[in-house]
Amino acid sequence: MIATVLFAAAIALPKVDILYPPHGTIYDRNCGNAAQADVEAAVKLRPELEAEWAREGPQYLNAAFEAVGKPYPYGEMQAYLTVCPNAGTMSAPLMVNVRQYLAGAAHPAPPGDFSEKLFHELMHHYVSAIGMNTPLRKKYAAEPMIVQAHLQVIALEKLVLTKLGKTAELKFLENEYRTSPKDSYARAWQIVNDGLQTLNTTRHEWVGADAATVAAAGWVLVDRIGRLLIAAALVAQAAKGGPIASTEPLVNAARRYAWNHLRRPAPEAATATHVQRSADLIRAIGRAPQEIPQ
């Protein structure tokens, strides 16, 4: 964990320029229904969005780099703004439609959403550089390409927003994905959300519980983890090779240690016996605090 954090800190953040010329882009001028008032508003808005990214962007990127531990593929990126109604925000070319951020927008986005949208598009470049041959992509290879392309990006979005405590933005983003006219976005969100739910290891019966129950819960966790570590050590020893008479007992022992805990959900907090023993231990410690090793 410490190594990951230090490595993330050493990863250089890409310099991201937020661009929109004083008279709009050629793209917007050639857009058949881009309003001149929107073009002028985007010109005025650009410095505010640039300042927002300078404030928010490094937090997003550092959180993603810490989680993945890989460098960004480019040292500099240029993100253009657009107000063309027919153009969506996209990663290639890197472009963010800012009509949601203009005064009087039909569907206004919350403050800070621009940075999240730009982060999303930057993450497309990030995960593409890491590689497509991942277990997640293999598992959902039958899904449409747009779903596959968003799985890792959306996973990073949810992870980073949760880590940064941006609950309002996460709620807004979830609503956008779930109500998107493109079913692929809703499908990608569902896959990621369901997958992350299975990683939620919080045992709610421990939260706010009495000391004996919490202590018993810790006891159970240490026991379960210890069994898996022992099983791994046994398998590693057997993998070194040798006569079948010596390797087979090692593998069988590993199976006995791990099988029950790998084929079932995580155990409940503790049995009544665990709680009672922990309560007895806590009472004993409470009566003789001077005997606790320092």
Q: How would you summarize the topology of this molecule?
A:
Layout: H1 2-10, E1 15-19, H2 26-29, H3 36-68, E2 76-82, E3 90-91, E4 94-97, H4 113-130, H5 135-139, H6 145-163, H7 167-178, H8 183-198, H9 211-239, H10 244-262, H11 272-287
Parallel strand pairs: 1-2, 2-4
Antiparallel strand pairs: 3-4
Detailed description of the structure:
- The chain is an alpha/beta fold and 294 residues long.
- It has 2 domains: 2-198, Neutral Protease, domain 2, CATH 1.10.390; 211-291, no CATH class.
- It has 11 helices and 4 strands; from the N terminus they run H-E-H-H-E-E-E-H-H-H-H-H-H-H-H.
- It has helices at residues 2-10, 26-29, 36-68, 113-130, 135-139, 145-163, 167-178, 183-198, 211-239, 244-262, 272-287; strands at residues 15-19, 76-82, 90-91, 94-97.
- Strands 1-2-4-3 form a 4-stranded mixed β-sheet.
- Strand 3 (90-91) and strand 4 (94-97) form a beta hairpin.
- It starts with a helix and ends in a 7-residue tail after the last helix.
